[in-house]
Design goal:
The complex is a heterodimer of chains A (794) and B (128). Chain A is α+β, with helices and mostly antiparallel strands. Chain A has six domains: 9-164, GAF domain (Beta-Lactamase); 180-302, Beta-Lactamase; 315-427, PAS domain (Beta-Lactamase), CATH 3.30.450.20; 446-552, Beta-Lactamase (2-Layer Sandwich); 559-627, Helix Hairpins, CATH 1.10.287; 634-791, Histidine kinase-like ATPase, C-terminal domain (Heat Shock Protein 90, 2-Layer Sandwich), CATH 3.30.565. Chain A is 40% helix and 27% strand. Chain A has 24 helices and 29 strands. In chain A, the strands form five sheets. In chain A, strands 23, 24, 25, 26, 27, 28 and 29 form a seven-stranded mixed β-sheet that branches. A six-stranded antiparallel β-sheet of chain A has the order 3-2-1-6-5-4. Chain A has a six-stranded antiparallel β-sheet with strand order 18-17-22-21-20-19. In chain A, helix 20 packs parallel to helix 24 (753-763). With 128 residues, chain B is an alpha/beta fold. Chain B has one domain (6-122): 3-Layer(aba) Sandwich (Rossmann fold), CATH 3.40.50.2300. Chain B is built from five helices and five strands; from the N terminus they run E-H-E-H-E-H-E-H-E-H. Chain B has a five-stranded parallel β-sheet, with helices on both faces. In chain B, helix 1 (14-28) links the parallel strand 1 (6-10) and strand 2 (31-35). Classes of the chains: A alpha+beta (794), B alpha/beta (128). The A-B interface holds A 572, 575-584, 586-587, 590, 592-593, 615, 619, 622, 632-635, 676, 678 and B 13, 15-16, 18-20, 22-23, 26-27, 87-88, 90-92, 108-113.
Chain lengths: 794, 128
């Protein structure tokens, strides 16, 4: 049959667990009971059985091998559900048990009698039971004995539990003693030491073993101190107190608990400052058992005090603790030694609160000092104030005071603070202010515009000139908005400046900008400026902003334009007379108007050659002028490369022959290029005529083309002349450059050819360059984008 | 077929006028009439009856282009080729001058030794 689970069952199980007996080893004390029960009832089997939620477990068993059986078939379950002895005379004839496996099989139970094990609060934990393999009945005496035995077992359970609790308690006490920060000494009622904790061993230098049974006062107390205390106590209590243990317990006997400073003796003779407290220990019958003497180590605290003094001495200034009470009175519980240094006051002068200090505050600052202190006290916020002090020795000094107020339980306000002399820092600050003022005036006086921003790109400075030029001051804008707001344009004065090209922003991003030309257009007037911008760094190396300096070059630009116009005008004006001079000389030298006398021939040739050179120079000047001014137009046409090279060869062959040099056209890929035919011819003529001029007589100039990658073709012109000197490499493509000045005449060039060629090639989206080993000739080349021939346009 | 003999040259600069005249007469064997302005050319063109007209572009008062237009009102320019003489020009300008009715453009400074043959070539290109 299933075991019933009454509502009380959970509480019963809790009670069973409380006794901590389930699954514990055999104990002879319990075996005595089963032995006794078997003997009294004359049964082969006796058990102490405990019933938990699913089984009965045997704390002691006699005549049975198993240690537990399932609760469902147990006889004892029936016993614990009742409240007295439960007896089955013949299980085979009993409806409830005849099919029980314990009856039909091992151990073949016929007879069962169980007495419940009942706790003082009424829970049946299990049974003491006797079992036989034959039917029978217990006598009245046997039943009574079984009930008494079960009560005894229960008492044993109780004692066992109590024993556990005592052991735990004792371990706890020991742990407390061991871990206590104070030294603890236990004594007997007559003052002999019965135990000490590890702190006491450490504090006094003895092991516990060395102190046990010795008199506390003899072992640890100096006799003279005991004698003095005994005299005082005798006087106070009106009876004689002996200078021994009595000194410690006499106040206790009078009902006084004392905390008293003593200097006890270390084993090595040192004096140990302690705060001593003595308590009596009574047992449960109020019987005096002994005393516990605790000694708190004051040396530790004395050290702290000393340390504070040392720290205070290191701190420049005055450390203080200041108490302001609700009644308006005040005091300084702590003041470090900086008092004289800061306020010119001695500790003796400080007695009556804050008044002496207040009197030292500079007259002009007093009202503000008081207001700020009151405010900090009212709001309990940290107080920080800089003000002047009239120091009797140093004169007027500046101090900085900081303090944190704390409200105390009694309503007073306790301040902890620090006062430092900042006279020197103030002087430096004043000097710094002066310098800053000077810098500011300098900036304002500059004819250059200066604009600065911080690391976040906020504009922080616009000097006078910057404000004037922009007609605006620094505004809170994101850098993206700068070009439009401040009317920034590129050098041409019409193309709006992309914000990421603004020099200040570029500098903010870490670049150093040199001479970037740009335009500020305000009210339709363009101001051309050169911008120089740099990142700015803090002393720790972090970038903290950027600055740009703008230099007005409007006037210079105007002069440049005038110069260009002048060159252009003069060139045009020169050309007409030069045309007639050159033509006239040409006709004379060509002997069209008659034979030229021999003695005039050479001079006329010189005049003719130089007039032609002048014409070429003027043409070049006008070309370069147009190129730099961006006024030259290009008619770009896509066309095959080969015919262009062939044409160049034909056009320059004659010129080359005049230097007894020939031109050879080498390989040329079948590609098209997109160029202005006339301008490309001009470049090729320039390169070929240069090569002719510098070639030794009889040599050949090589002209060829090759694709560099799929998208570009390189056209090269190689001569076998002297090559390009290292010193000349850098400026070979600049205006009026020739290898040396004497060359110009000798080679009959204008010095503008390569500069013009470079501009022309770049305008046609190409690049120009050269390779040269001095003494071994030069190879000039240009590269242009190229296209497959079938894409050639008609 | 008409023979190229008479060339009308319109040029404000007397030096160039003179040099051109020498070059064309001495080398080409042509008969040259020099006019110092467009107006003068208009006055004399019918009387001179040129086979070829050489026109300067940049002239004070009436420029080369206007002179050409006004000349076309007086004579049949399909029969008389006109060439401009001008300093180096930008591409596109030549095209513009051709559209006005010019047969070709001769770039200043010109080579006096080759001028006559250049004009001859232009003349021949129209006949071919």
């Amino acid at each position: 049959m299933p075991a019933p689970s009454p509502p009380r069952e959970l509480s019963r199980l809790a009670a069973l667990l409380r006794y901590e007996i389930l699954d514990t080893p055999d104990e002879s004390a319990f075996d005595d009971f089963t032995q006794l029960a078997s003997h009294i009832c004359d049964t082969p089997i006796a058990l102490i059985s405990l019933v938990d939620d699913h089984r009965q477990w045997f704390k002691s068993r006699l005549g049975l091998d198993v240690s537990e059986t399932p609760r469902g078939i147990s006889f004892c379950t029936h016993t614990i559900e009742g409240d007295g002895l439960f007896e089955v005379h013949d299980a085979q004839r009993d409806q409830r048990f005849r099919h029980n496996p314990l009856v039909t099989g091992e151990p073949h139970i016929r007879f069962y009698a169980g007495a419940p094990l009942t706790t003082p609060d009424g829970y049946n934990l299990g049974t003491l039971c006797v079992i036989d393999r034959q039917p029978r009945r217990l006598s009245e005496g046997q039943r009574d004995a079984l009930m008494r035995l079960s009560r005894q077992i229960m008492r044993l359970f109780e004692e066992r539990l109590q024993g556990h609790r005592y052991a735990e308690q004792a371990a706890l006490h020991q742990a407390l003693l061991n871990s206590a920060a104070s030294a603890m000494v236990l004594t007997t009622a007559d003052g002999r030491i019965s135990g000490v904790n590890p702190t006491a061993e450490r504090l006094f230098g003895y092991s516990e073993r060395m102190l046990i049974d010795r008199s506390l006062t003899t072992a640890l107390f100096p006799l003279d101190a005991l004698v003095r205390r005994a005299a005082i106590l005798s006087d106070e209590l009106g009876e004689t107190v002996e200078p021994g243990f009595a000194v410690l317990i006499a106040p206790l006997l009078e009902g006084r608990r004392e905390m008293r400073e003593w200097r006890l003796l270390h084993r090595n003779g040192d004096s140990v400052p302690v705060l001593l407290n003595v308590s009596a220990i009574h047992d449960e019958h109020e019987q005096l058992h002994g005393y516990i003497v605790s000694a708190y180590d004051l040396a530790h605290q004395e050290n702290l005090q000393l340390r504070l003094q040392q720290i205070a001495a290191q701190v420049p200034g005055l450390l203080f603790q200041f108490c302001w009470r609700p009644d308006g009175s005040s005091s300084f519980p702590y003041l470090s030694e900086g008092l004289e240094d800061i306020y010119g006051l001695s500790a003796a002068e400080m007695a009556p609160g804050i008044a002496p200090i207040y009197s030292r505050v500079h007259l002009d600052d007093r009202a503000r000092v008081l207001t700020s202190i009151r405010h900090a006290a009212a709001t309990l916020t940290p107080w920080h104030f800089e003000h002047r002090i009239d120091h009797p020795r140093k004169g007027v000094i500046w101090i900085e005071a900081r303090a944190t107020p704390m409200r105390q339980a009694d309503g007073s306000v306790l301040w902890h603070g620090l006062v430092t002399d900042i006279t020197e820092r103030k002087a430096e600050q004043t000097e710094l202010d002066k310098q800053q003022e000077m810098n500011r005036r300098l900036l304002e006086a500059l004819s250059e515009a200066v604009v600065a921003c911080d690391a976040e790109g906020n504009l922080t400075l616009f000097n006078n000139t910057a404000r004037l030029w922009h007609g605006l001051d620094a505004a809170q804008l994101s850098p993206e908005q700068w070009p439009q707001y401040y009317r920034l344009f590129q050098a041409d004065g019409v193309t709006p400046m992309p914000y990421d090209q603004v020099p200040l922003l570029r500098a903010l991003r870490g670049e150093r900008i040199r001479n970037q030309e740009m335009t500020i257009v305000v009210h339709g007037t363009a101001r051309h400026v050169l911008a120089n911008a740099d990142p700015m760094f803090a002393s720790d190396g972090h970038q903290n902003g950027a600055v740009v300096v703008l230099h007005d070059i409007t006037e210079r630009k105007q002069i440049e334009v005038l110069q260009r116009d002048f060159v252009s005008t003069v060139s045009h004006e020169l050309r007409t007379p030069l045309t007639s001079i050159t033509a006239s000389l040409g006709l004379i030298c060509g002997e069209i108007v008659g034979e030229v006398p021999e003695h005039l021939q050479e001079l006329l040739d010189i005049a003719h050659q130089n007039s032609k050179r002048l014409s070429a120079l003027i043409d070049d000047l006008l070309d370069i002028d147009k190129l730099y001014a961006g006024k030259m137009r290009f008619e770009m046409q896509r066309q095959p490369l080969q015919p262009l090279l062939e044409q160049a060869l034909r056009s320059n062959q004659g010129y080359a022959e005049s230097y007894t040099v020939s031109i050879e056209l080498g390989s040329c890929p079948a590609v098209s290029i997109e160029v202005d035919t006339m301008r490309l011819e001009q470049v090729l003529s320039n390169l070929l005529s240069n090569a002719a001029k510098y070639s030794p007589p009889g040599e050949t100039i090589e002209l060829w083309a090759e694709t560099v990658d799929d998208a570009k073709v390189r056209v090269s012109v190689r001569d076998k002349g002297p090559g390009i000197a290292d010193t000349f490499r850098e400026r070979i493509f600049s205006k009026f450059a020739q290898a040396d000045s004497s060359d110009t005449r000798q080679q009959g060039g204008t010095g503008l050819g390569l500069a013009i060629s470079k501009e022309l090639i770049e305008h046609m989206h190409g690049q120009i360059g050269f390779d040269s080993i001095p003494g071994a000739g030069a190879c000039f080349w240009f590269e242009l984008p190229c296209y497959p021939p079938q894409e050639a346009q008609p | 077929m008409t023979e190229l003999k008479r060339i009308l040259h319109v040029e404000d600069d007397p030096s160039i006028q003179a040099v051109t005249k020498v070059a064309l007469e001495a080398i080409g064997g042509y008969q040259v009439r020099s006019c110092s302005s467009g107006l003068q050319a208009l006055e004399e063109v019918e009387e001179f009856d040129p086979h070829f007209i050489l026109l300067d572009v940049m002239m004070p008062g009436m420029g080369g282009a206007e002179t050409l237009t006004r000349l076309s009102e007086r004579i049949d320019l399909t029969q008389v080729p006109v060439a401009f003489m001008t300093a180096k020009v930008q591409p596109g300008e030549i095209e513009h001058l051709r559209k006005l009715g010019a047969r070709d453009v001769i770039i200043k400074p010109f080579d006096p030794m080759r001028l006559a043959s250049q004009i001859r070539a232009i003349w021949d290109s129209g006949r071919a």
